[in-house]
Structure formats: C-alpha cells, structure tokens
C-alpha cells in the first residue's frame, strides 16, 4: 500500500492528541502544588507522599489487586478446562454452551451487574434465613460476591482466547502420546499444555486487565462495605477527585508503560534474532 | 481427548451465575413486591420514554462519530509501515490502562467553565462556553472512552487484507478510489460491524459518563437503572423491567445489523 501523505499524518496526530491529552492532564496535575484545578501552582510530590497515608485508597487498591489476581487465576483454570471439555462435546450441546458463554460478553455490563446483584441478594437472604441462622453467622454481599462476578465475566474471555489454539492442535498428537504410554493428566501437561500455552497466558492477561478496569459490575455486586479502586474514584468524581488518586493512577499507568516497553523490546529482539538465523541459514544453503 | 467432564464445573457455573440471574431479572420485571404477576412495571416505564429516546439517540450519535473518526484512523494506521504500524495496537490500547472514570473526570476538568479549554480560549478573547453538563459533553465522553473499541477490530481486519488482492485490483485497472470502495471496504465490513456493536452497547447503557459529564439533569437509561437498584428511587421490579426492555431492543438492533451485514457480498471471517 502507498504511504500516508502529510494530511493523513496530521489526522493521526490529532487522533492521538485526542486520546492522550486527558491522560497528560491527569499526570501533570498529580504534580501540582495546588488542589485547585486549572491553576498551576508549582511542582510538588506531596500527593505521592499522602497517597501512602490514605487508608481508604490503599485498601481499595488492595481489594482491586486481590480480586483481579484471584479472578484471573481461577477463571484461567476453569476456562481452559471448559474450552478443552467443550471440544469433546457433541456439536449441538457445544453450540448451546458457547451461546450461553457469549451472554456476559454481549450483554451490557449494567445488566450483568444488576441481574447478578438480584441473584446475590436472593442467595444472601436464603443463607441468612436457613444455614446462617443455625450457625449464627450473617453473610453479606462483599468480597466473595465480587469475586464470583469477576470470574463470571473473565471466563468467557479466557475461553475465547484458548479456543483458537485448541482448534490448531493436531488431534493425533494426543493419541500418539497415549500410544507411547503417556496417560491422563501427564499426557495433557506434556503434550497439549505447551501447544496451547500462548492462548492460556493471553487469556490470563486479558482476564486480569478486565478485572482491574471493571467498574460497573463491581459497583453492583460488591455490597456496601467492599470498595474497589474504581468505586472509590466514582464516588469521588461526583464531587472532586483528590490529587492522591491522580498520583496513584500516574504510578499505575507508568508501571503499565514500562511493562509494555519491556515486552515490546523483547519481542523485537527475538524477531531480529530469528531473522538473522534465517538469513544465516539461507546464506549457507 | 475424551475428557469432556472437565467442562462440567463451568457448565454448572454458567447455569448458576449466567442463566439464573437472567431468569431472576425476567421474573422481577413481571412481578410486584409481594410476588404477584403484573404488567404495571412496563406501564410505569411510559414516564421514561424520553430517557429511552435520549439514550438511544446519544449512543447512535456517538457510534457514528466513532466510525467517522475510527475508520480513517484504523485505515491510516494499517497503511503506515515501520514503528507506527508495529506499535499501533499498543498506542490505541494504552489509554485504556488509565482508569476509565479518571479519564472521564479529566474531561470534566478540561471542559469546565473555568477549565483548561475555556482558559485557553479566553486568551484568544473567546468564550467562556458552556460545555460541561451538556448532552454534547456526554457524547464526547462516549466517543473518547469507546473509540478504541471501534479502531481495534477495523485495524485488525484491514491489516489482514492480502496486499496481492489490492495489487490484482490495480493490475485490472482500478484506481485507488475503486480499490477502496470495491476491495478494502467490503473486506473490512466484519471489523466495522463488531466495532459498532462494541461501541453502541456500552454507550447506550452507560451511567457513569452521563453522571460525570452530563450533570444531574440529563438522565440516561443507565442512570434510571442505577437509581432503581442502588439509588433514591429504589424499586428493583421497575429497574428489572427497564433492563429487560433495553436488553431486548439492543438484541433486536444487533440482530438486524448483523443480518444486514451478512447480506453484503457474503463477507465472512
């Protein structure tokens, strides 16, 4: 294809300006000495210091990281197992399950959120009225319901990421492993898992990202006591976000940028090495 | 591989946490507080017709704007060679790593009466303009937040188009406009359709964007539902009815669109 002209380049520049300007504003104002908005009152690191003394924010950060890591981990295991199992089902039941699996992906978040909230309210009431009464415990919506909700919207994404890798898998290699005396889980671990690993890892990353970023579903399923970072930000943003939140987001954003740069550099150097090897091979032959 | 049993835990999970909630919300929509069957929840929705209309209108505008910006953006990025092409996916996705509420809040910051944009315009002797707390601000928030969902699928289909197909069209005498209209556009249609879905659904159901950028006066469907479940107007039965109707309308829209899309030159992916 032809290269872009000056006009195209200008359009690209405008688009990226649009995408990045608000983020730049957040980052710049996390260093602003004044709490006020559009006024620059000099450079400070105070908000970064205060951030580490703000228990509400730190607690919410902890909840967010814990629920995201747990949900990503559990849904990767359940999703990978489900994807493998689905491959062995009859076409008809597989189609039914895949349609249900797609519901959380296509439904609006708010509907997933409120419908699960109704289920949890129902479950909590049923538990407190029966078993809870016997044991003298009172259950409330909180971390557990939050985790269930996160797993529910994470698994479909893991399945979508693992499925294509399974489809590429040669069905004969598993049987070959079995013929050679490798059975059950061991055959799975030594033959299938290495082949589908990129899909599994990708699914884990997607699940973690979605969980970290989720607001709507958490908002309806976390109950009154538990708060994720997004929920803290929402309750603040209705009035005024404290600059500590700007500081925290800047730190998280910087962490992601650094991670991305490392991953990209590694990929680029791997590619270069592969190309050099290829060049060497063709030169020899 | 005969181990289909390992999918059973997830099948049970789906039954409990995907299917059951949908059944419960349907049940709630058709019942009163004491459990009797009723259609009054749907009748009560009549007072919110304007919110329905507003939500679908604003979401439609946001989707069209996303398409008008997103398609050329994806197309130009796919045509670039070198680092910009390699980094394109990452550059589009990176902003999504900043919390979406904060990014939205940042616009509030920019659009306010004494915000950055009005201050800058003031230096040029213009304004101040009322930008925050308008429906335009809500559309801007939707476009800003969901633009990547439009760009990414379009970029990935355009990128996969075999350059030989384009060369063949050129060899057959097609000029660049014809190549675009007859080759690239039809081949990129699946990306466009999934982009439209991925922008429209979160736009029509949002409540955070309208709450942060639209002030308290502009109610969208998401705000109505939020109010019925966690807000002042607590009434989960009415909230369920609104959710159900919204879900059905969205499903019908998407089905019509996908059907319409399938008819065009039989593009499949």
From TrEMBL, chain A:
Alphabetized UniProt keyword annotations: Cell membrane, Membrane, Transmembrane, Transmembrane helix, Transport
Keyword flag Cell membrane: yes
Major localisation: membrane
Transmembrane segments: 62-86, 107-127, 139-160, 245-265
Subcellular locations according to the entry: Cell membrane
Topology within the bilayer: Multi-pass membrane protein
One of the Pfam families matching this protein, by short name: BPD_transp_1
GO biological process assignments: transmembrane transport
Gene3D superfamilies per record: MetI-like
GO cellular component, one term: plasma membrane
Domain ABC transmembrane type-1: 61-263
Domain of life from the UniProt record: Bacteria
Signal peptide limits: none
Classification via InterPro entries: Bact_Polyamine_Transport (IPR051789), MetI-like (IPR000515), MetI-like_sf (IPR035906)
Stretches of the chain forming a coiled coil according to its record: none
Family under the similarity heading: Belongs to the binding-protein-dependent transport system permease family. CysTW subfamily.
Database matches in PANTHER family: PUTRESCINE TRANSPORT SYSTEM PERMEASE PROTEIN POTI
Name of this protein: Spermidine Putrescine ABC transporter permease component potC
Taxonomic lineage of the native organism: Bacteria, Bacillati, Bacillota, Clostridia, Eubacteriales
UniProtKB/TrEMBL annotation, chain B:
UniProt membrane topology term: Multi-pass membrane protein
GO CC, alphabetical: plasma membrane
Residue span, ABC transmembrane type-1 domain: 52-257
SUPFAM superfamilies in UniProt: MetI-like (SSF161098)
The keyword Cell membrane is assigned to this record: yes
UniProt subcellular location: Cell membrane
Keyword annotations of the record: Cell membrane, Membrane, Transmembrane, Transmembrane helix, Transport
Biological processes per GO annotation: transmembrane transport
UniProt-listed CDD domains: TM_PBP2
TM annotation in the entry: 12-30, 51-77, 83-102, 114-132, 138-158, 179-201, 237-260
Entry similarity comment: Belongs to the binding-protein-dependent transport system permease family. CysTW subfamily.
Name of the featured protein: Spermidine Putrescine ABC transporter permease component PotB
Lineage, opening ranks: Bacteria, Bacillati, Bacillota, Clostridia, Eubacteriales
């Amino acid at each position: 294809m032809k290269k872009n002209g000056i006009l195209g380049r200008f359009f690209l520049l405008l688009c990226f300006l649009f995408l990045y300007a608000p983020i730049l504003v957040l980052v710049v104002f996390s260093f602003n000495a004044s709490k006020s908005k559009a006024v620059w009152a000099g450079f400070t690191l105070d908000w970064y210091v205060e951030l580490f003394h703000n228990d509400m924010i730190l607690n919410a950060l902890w909840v967010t990281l814990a629920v995201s890591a747990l949900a990503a981990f559990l849904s990767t295991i359940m999703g990978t197992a489900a994807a493998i199992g689905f491959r062995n089902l009859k076409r008809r039941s597989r189609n039914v399950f895949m349609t249900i699996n797609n519901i959380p992906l296509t439904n609006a978040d708010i509907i997933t959120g409120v419908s699960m909230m109704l289920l949890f309210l129902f479950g909590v009431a049923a538990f407190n009225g029966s078993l809870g009464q016997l044991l003298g415990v009172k259950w409330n919506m909180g971390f557990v319901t939050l985790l269930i909700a996160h797993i529910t919207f994470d698994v479909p994404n893991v399945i979508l990421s693992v499925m294509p890798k399974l489809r590429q898998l040669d069905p004969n290699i598993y049987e070959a492993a079995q013929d050679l005396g490798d059975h059950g889980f061991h055959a799975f671990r030594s033959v299938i898992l290495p082949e589908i690993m990129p899909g599994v890892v990708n699914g884990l990353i997607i699940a973690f990202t979605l969980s970290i970023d989720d607001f709507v579903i958490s908002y309806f399923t976390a109950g009154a006591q538990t708060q994720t970072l997004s929920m803290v930000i929402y309750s603040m943003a209705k009035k005024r976000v404290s600059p500590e939140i700007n500081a925290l987001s800047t730190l998280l954003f910087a962490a992601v940028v650094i991670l991305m740069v490392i991953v990209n550099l590694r990929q680029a150097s791997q590619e270069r090495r592969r190309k050099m090897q290829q060049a060497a091979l063709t030169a020899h032959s | 591989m005969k181990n289909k049993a390992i999918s059973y835990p997830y099948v049970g999970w789906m039954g409990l946490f995907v299917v059951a909630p949908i059944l419960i919300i349907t049940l709630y929509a058709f019942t009163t507080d004491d459990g009797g069957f009723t259609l009054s929840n749907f009748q009560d929705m009549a007072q919110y017709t304007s919110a329905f209309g507003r939500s679908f209108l604003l979401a439609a505008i946001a989707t069209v704007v996303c398409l008008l910006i997103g398609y050329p953006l994806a197309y130009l990025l796919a045509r670039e060679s070198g680092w910009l092409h390699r980094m394109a996916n990452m550059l589009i996705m990176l902003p999504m790593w900043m919390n979406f509420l904060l990014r939205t809040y940042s616009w509030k910051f920019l659009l306010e009466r004494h915000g950055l944009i009005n201050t800058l315009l003031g230096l040029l002797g213009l304004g101040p303009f009322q930008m925050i707390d308008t429906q335009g601000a809500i559309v801007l928030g939707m476009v800003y937040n969901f633009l990547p969902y439009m760009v990414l699928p379009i970029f990935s289909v355009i990128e996969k188009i075999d350059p030989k197909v384009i060369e063949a069209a050129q060899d057959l005498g097609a000029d660049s406009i014809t190549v675009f209209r007859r080759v690239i556009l039809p081949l990129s249609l699946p990306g466009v359709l999934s982009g439209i879905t991925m922008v429209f659904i979160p736009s029509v159901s949002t409540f955070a964007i309208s709450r942060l950028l639209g002030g308290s006066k502009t109610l969208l469907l998401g705000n109505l539902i939020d109010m019925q479940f966690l807000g002042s107007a607590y009434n989960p039965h009415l909230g369920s009815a609104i959710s159900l109707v919204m879900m059905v309308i969205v499903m019908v829209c998407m089905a019509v669109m996908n059907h319409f899309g399938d008819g065009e030159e039989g593009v499949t992916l």
